[in-house]
Specification:
The chain is α+β, with helices and mostly antiparallel strands. It folds into 3 domains: 2-114, DNA Polymerase III, subunit A, domain 2 (DNA Polymerase III, Chain A, domain 2), CATH 3.10.150; 125-243, DNA Polymerase III, Chain A, domain 2; 245-359, DNA Polymerase III, Chain A, domain 2. The protein contains 6 helices and 26 strands. The protein has a 9-stranded antiparallel β-sheet with strand order 14-11-12-13-26-25-24-18-22. Strands 6-2-3-4-17-16-15-10 form an 8-stranded antiparallel β-sheet.
């Protein structure tokens, strides 16, 4: 196997592949590798950790067809260390050589026969806007759990809901729900996709215009600009979430998104270890507080429009900042009913009803 290509072109693909390749201790060495296959003037890269896989196709100058399997991290580090310009990659029986200018690396390879068979999902392709899907994932994936003892909560629920494509994530302390009306799926669609995989999909979607989703019984594939990312679906039962969302919230405060984010950034200096930040809401506006009077204290007043009963409510500072950051637009609305009950954060404007972020309060 031998080919020539631009260093930047190969580095971008290897960056994605090395993130997918397994880094688990005790995993088969082949799973830490990237499979390189040259067919004519095309290079096919494949990496997998057996749960998630990536397949990318690059246009190259092919000189000799063949297959090689090499450590994804090692090859990625090598290619990124080289200067911009043309590089040549050539595989021998048990090694691979990378040349660029006067630099040359020769490193051992794995047995390509040990690499598992990787196949994308076989369902029909659903064309979607990469920008809209990427924005929905940005808003929702952040709320998924990372606790492997609660596998269902590490996934993002994707379903057909009222004619829209709905994404839902929760870690039991917060809940993010986003509807994408431009993506039409069957009301029978209901799948649970690992949030880790969707984090990688976000990277693929960045800068792209169009994407496609293929879904079958056991997996889902996202196709973006010649790259396919496939992940197994989670089979766990997702918790009922709709009952958490109240119909009405009598207390509403509208505040500048940027001013609130800046205040929260300062408050978190004292709200250590994800400690609480307190919001005092009244007709005088919003007061952001953190710390304690016995030790240290932070206060900042922000102009806001409020309707409801005067109250003080506390939230995990990190979770609240994440919810505010997810909102698009200049202003956000925080809706509450009681300092001991969940609050909802939404945007302001025409499409504000398409996304909400529900957050459990902390005890004062």
């Amino acid at each position: 196997m031998k080919f020539r290509c631009e260093r930047e072109q190969l580095a971008e693909a290897l960056g994605l592949a090395s993130r997918i390749a397994s880094g688990r201790v005790g995993a088969l060495p082949a799973l830490s590798g990237v499979r390189l296959q040259v067919k004519g003037d095309q290079l096919h890269l494949t990496s997998t950790d057996n749960d998630m896989s990536l397949q990318a196709t690059l246009a190259i100058g092919g000189e000799k067809d063949g297959v090689a399997l090499i450590s994804a991290k090692l090859l990625n580090d090598i290619v990124r260390s080289l200067p911009e310009g043309k590089i040549t990659v050539e595989a021998q029986v048990e090694s691979l050589t990378v040349k660029s200018g006067r630099s040359q690396f020769t490193v051992p390879t794995y047995n390509a026969m040990d690499f598992p068979n990787v196949t994308p999902s076989t369902g029909p392709a659903l064309s979607v806007s990469a920008t809209e899907l990427g924005e929905a994932l940005r808003k929702v994936v952040r709320a998924a759990s990372t606790d492997q003892m609660r596998i269902a909560l590490t996934g993002v629920l994707m379903s057909g809901e009222d004619g829209s494509f709905r994404l839902v994530a929760t870690d039991s302390y917060r809940l993010a729900v986003c509807d994408v009306p431009s993506i039409v799926v069957s009301s029978a669609t209901r799948v649970l996709v690992p949030s880790k995989a969707l984090g990688e999909v976000q990277r693929l979607l960045s800068g792209a215009k169009e994407a496609a989703i293929r879904l079958d019984e056991n997996s889902v594939t996202f196709e973006v600009d010649g790259t396919q990312l496939t992940t197994r679906l989670l089979t766990n039962e997702y918790p009922t979430y709709k009952t958490l969302i109240q119909g009405t919230y009598p207390n509403n405060i509208t505040v500048s998104r940027e001013q609130l984010l800046d205040a929260l950034r300062r408050a978190r200096i004292l709200a250590r270890d994800q400690g609480p930040v307190r919001l005092h809401m009244s007709n005088n506006g919003l007061k952001v507080m953190a710390g304690t009077k016995d030790n240290d204290e932070f206060e900042e007043d922000i102009d806001a429009v409020y309707s409801g009963d005067e109250l003080t409510i506390a939230f995990n500072s990190e979770y609240l900042a994440a919810g505010i950051d997810a909102i698009a637009g200049q202003d956000v609305i925080i809706k509450t009913s009681d300092p001991a009950k969940p609050a909802v954060v939404t945007g302001v404007g025409e499409h504000s009803e398409q996304y909400l972020y529900l957050l459990m309060p902390q005890r004062l």
